[in-house]
Write a structure and sequence with these properties.
Elements lengths: L4 E2 L4 E4 L4 H9 L4 E4 L12 H11 L2 E4 L8 H13 L4 E4 L4 H13 L4 H10 L8 H9 L1
Parallel strand pairs: 2-5, 3-4, 3-5
Antiparallel strand pairs: 1-2
């Protein structure tokens, strides 16, 4: 069973999903999947290609933006582009949902989002962005 945490009407995050979860995500109304987990990060994890194949058969957009270590502006911009291109709610996943939440937050701030609102939405979904706050503020002002 997927542990989906809704951040707002446009995005939800979850820990690692498998190909079978994609059908459930489609049933729940998601229009796109963003994979923020690199393949082979952990032994036995589902790889992106089979997830993408099921997404394609179910009519969901699929974008891989693997994150390991820090976040680059290229990753932030790719996340913003994937969110903007989505034709409905997005499900982003990584190992625990934290990287997906952080990348969403950075993309929101870089697009001019209010850091207070971003932090509050993440907190309501169970993710603490306190350590990211200075970066969110800097991106929002840029």
């Amino acid at each position: 069973m997927m542990d989906i945490r809704k951040i707002d009407d446009t995005i939800s995050v979850s820990p690692q999903i498998d190909p079978a979860d994609v059908t459930e995500a489609a049933r729940q109304g998601f229009a796109a999947i963003i994979n923020n987990r690199p393949d082979h990060e952990e032994a036995g994890q589902p790889e992106g290609e089979p997830i993408q194949r099921v997404a394609d058969t179910r009519g969901l957009a699929y974008t891989a933006i693997p994150v390991s270590g820090g976040f680059s502006h290229e990753q932030i911009d790719a996340m913003r582009a994937a969110l903007d291109a989505a034709k409905g709610p997005v499900l982003a996943f990584c190992r625990t949902g934290t990287r997906s939440t952080n990348l969403w937050a950075l993309a929101e701030a870089k697009a001019g989002g209010d850091p207070d609102a971003i932090v509050a939405k993440a907190a309501a979904a169970g993710y603490d962005l306190a350590g990211l706050r200075p970066t969110l503020e800097a991106l929002a002002k840029a």
